[in-house]
Design goal:
Blueprint lengths: L1 H8 L4 H34 L10 H41 L6 H15 L4
């Protein structure tokens, strides 16, 4: 009895601790595998007899057709937006090509001076 009490008070060695950790992790892994196996068996049992046609009611059919229609309308709206943006971009491109504003020589000189100033700062 006294020896048991002394053995409890004795510090645990690192090897004992690592061995205990290894055993514990192995047990945890086995339990997790068993749990996963039971879950898969349960799913197979429950879903194995599942027939989706069985649950297709008139209400379900109405909802699914409504969702499909909404999806098609949304897709059509997106296509229309894309076409509108393309038309707008093409028109803007055409206008830029055909109707360029005249360049002022005075303004061009000012811009060139500003560019030169940034290249050669004030001394």
């Amino acid at each position: 009895m006294l020896e048991e009490i002394k053995s409890f008070k004795k510090p645990i060695s690192n090897e004992e601790f690592l061995e205990h950790e290894r055993i514990y992790e192995e047990e945890q892994r086995v339990r997790e595998e068993e749990r996963e196996l039971k879950r898969l068996e349960w799913e197979e049992e429950v879903l194995g007899h599942f027939d989706p046609v069985q649950f297709r009611t008139k209400t379900y059919e109405k909802i699914s057709s409504l969702e499909e229609r909404e999806k098609e309308e949304k897709q059509l709206k997106e296509e229309m937006k894309k076409q509108l943006l393309d038309k707008k971009d093409n028109y803007a491109k055409y206008v830029r090509e055909m109707h360029l504003p005249p360049r002022s020589k005075k303004k061009m000189e000012q811009l060139n001076k500003q560019i030169e100033r940034t290249k050669h700062p004030v001394r």
